[in-house]
Amino acid sequence: MILAKIRKMLPDMPPNFRKIGSYILDHEQTVAFASIYTISEAIGVSNASMVRFAKSLDLAGYQDFKHEIQEEIKFRLSPYDKIALRELDGMPEEKRLQKLFQNEVNNLRNTFENIKAKDLQAMADSIRNSRRIFICGFGISGHMARIFEYTLMCSVNKDVMVISGSVSDYSPRLRTFTADDTMFIMTFPPYSDEIRHVASVVKEKGGTLHLFTDSAVCPIYSLADVVVRCDTNSLLLANSYVGLVSTLNILVHTVFLSAKDSSIEARSSTLTMQESGYATIHEISEKQ
Questions:
Q1: pTM: predicted TM-score of the whole model, two decimal places
Q2: Which domains does the chain show, CATH number per domain?
Q3: What is the C-alpha to C-alpha distance for residues 144 and 76, in angstroms, rounded to an integer?
Q4: Per-10-residue mean pLDDT for the chain, 288 residues long?
């Protein structure tokens, strides 16, 4: 969360930044929707100082900073935009389906609108250049991690490992993580406590951390090297994963296209292994 990050960094900031940070914490809603000119004048600093302050928080510029605050306030005011069961249940069937369809379309559109091409490319570059790929997810996100693992293993000639389950389940794999590896973590409300442990190990070992989540409220948001936000709004249940699944599909295609020769080799090798397996099974069944 960007405001929590400011609070944490505030005591060690230079005087000018401390002045800006203090004003933002005291007037967060004003800052979220006012122009840089209005805020810089109110604080008594230059526009350039506001931009430098935003960049000191590892953001591209003031507009990104402003967007982060808006998202944080939006989440705090309405973390889940749900619809009452009785309201949805009372609708005519056609209208109810339209409502459900539109919700998924909105999730997909909002996810794609928030994705920056450079972030997906950075993820693809990490997959191509890292020694090994680790994918972390707990609960339903663990199933998404397995899907991502399978599609990657079909497209790259390197080890892909999933971090999931209990601490005792994943610790033997996590302890082998090195600075030459890349970790992908996917987590959505309610955020699993285990992600804090996994993220801390990755950063301690100097590895790269990529994050799929829904909001800056995510407890490991500030630790990630690259973040892709996926809208997960569900009218009834906990989360929708249409944005995440589509984004993973695009990412794997990006990896494939950026290293076609090795990707084609990996796909061909996988198909050969599958054909061999089916032939063996057919041969055994013929003998029975």
A1: 0.66
A2: 2-77 (1.10.10.10), 115-268 (3.40.50.10490)
A3: 26
A4: 85 92 87 89 93 92 88 59 57 77 86 90 93 95 94 87 95 96 94 94 96 89 92 78 94 82 67 76 74
